[in-house]
Write a structure and sequence with these properties.
By secondary structure, the chain is α+β, with helices and mostly antiparallel strands. The chain is 47% helix and 11% strand. The protein has a single domain, classed as Cytochrome P450 (Cytochrome p450, Orthogonal Bundle). The protein has 18 helices and 13 strands. The structure holds protoporphyrin IX containing FE.
Amino acid sequence: MDAVLARAPVYGPDLFHPDALRSPFGHYQALRDLGPVARLAHPDVYVLSRYDEVRDALRAPDALISGKGVGFSDEFNTPGGPNVIQSDGDLHGRLKTEVLRPLNIGALRPHRPLLKEMIAARIGELVGEGPFDAMTEIARVLPPRAISFLVGLPEDGRARMLDWAAAAFNALGPFDRTFTSDFSLLAEAFGYIRNQSRDTVREGSWARALFDAVDAGRLSEAEARGALSAYVVPSLDTTILAKGHLLHLLARNPDQWRLLREDPALVPNAVLESLRHSSVLRWFSRVAAKDYASGEVFIPQGERVMLIYPSANRDERRFPDPDRFDIRRDARSQLAFGNGTHMCGGQHLARLEMEVMLEALVESCETMEAGEPEIGANRGLYGFTRLPLELMPATAR
Ligand code: HEM
């Protein structure tokens, strides 16, 4: 590293104040305006919020590592065993190869008809029936019934998965006394996973395949359990909240909904554009394993760096008029699933769930009306706790 080129400006407001968590985009704009790299006053970390800088950091896994944790709390960063999201190099490669097996496009294809049928049946019951809460009645339908079944945990674990996921993302930190219950839920999740073996999980399930990898000598027992946490923690809430944003954006932008109904081939891009516009995962962090230069700023070895995905996705330098939801925009380069070696392992499943939901809506409903959503204050995830929605059938015109 040649020289210190510039000092990062400090951003004072607390990004983790409940008001900021419920309304984060003004803060993200201010951070992007401040410069390519800034430093937060609390917690004391570097922060990247512009598109190019976030993408480049995600593509530099040797310099900015995940193995020292991607959160701000010790409870999240030290789960007591290996896991995909917080590992580097060979270990990460081996874990991810096994985790990805059931999650690639080809492996997921056979599940599409059943997932579509289940969500279409649910939407069919709701069309023309007056207002309902879309988070409970639509967004949360598939995960507990279908996805947790595919993962294959015993019934008691399946019932807890949603609570564990929300707690885990909240426990990312920074540390706060109000987290006590989330930390104990996180510990419960990790403890539960540690107790699983090939005999406790369903035959033919994704979890069983991980224990088969132990028998085949590709993973150790501890690694199989670590890989299992990848199906339990990041798989449900993320997709549920993303569906809420997609429904809300289409209901609030009738021109875009009309476009979609006229041309259902736009469904996959509408999904990506909603992920770009309202990215669910707020941030993860890395630690600089060596000195790292981002733009004009030098980040010294040992420093923690926060990466704000939703801000990168609203960067006007990359996406013109970024606050506008436009399903014809080329949204393929959005970073809602991250990028590079740690890019989301479940993105094809998430997109599949969102696509079948949209297809079912386009087929059975003519107009959607959304009320005011209630926005949650989870520290890791941006999404609604409640979304009033009404679906009108084609015949009601
Ligand atoms: C809309 C839904 C989802 C969003 C927005 C999302 C977002 C993300 C992001 C941003 C990362 C990058 C982590 C990093 O940069 O360190 C990630 C990683 C990951 N996600 Fe997702 N995710 C979603 C759904 C899922 C689902 C359904 C699963 C599993 C079935 C899943 C499993 C994973 C795993 C295993 C990783 C770690 C990958 C690695 O470290 O190599 N995600 N996700």
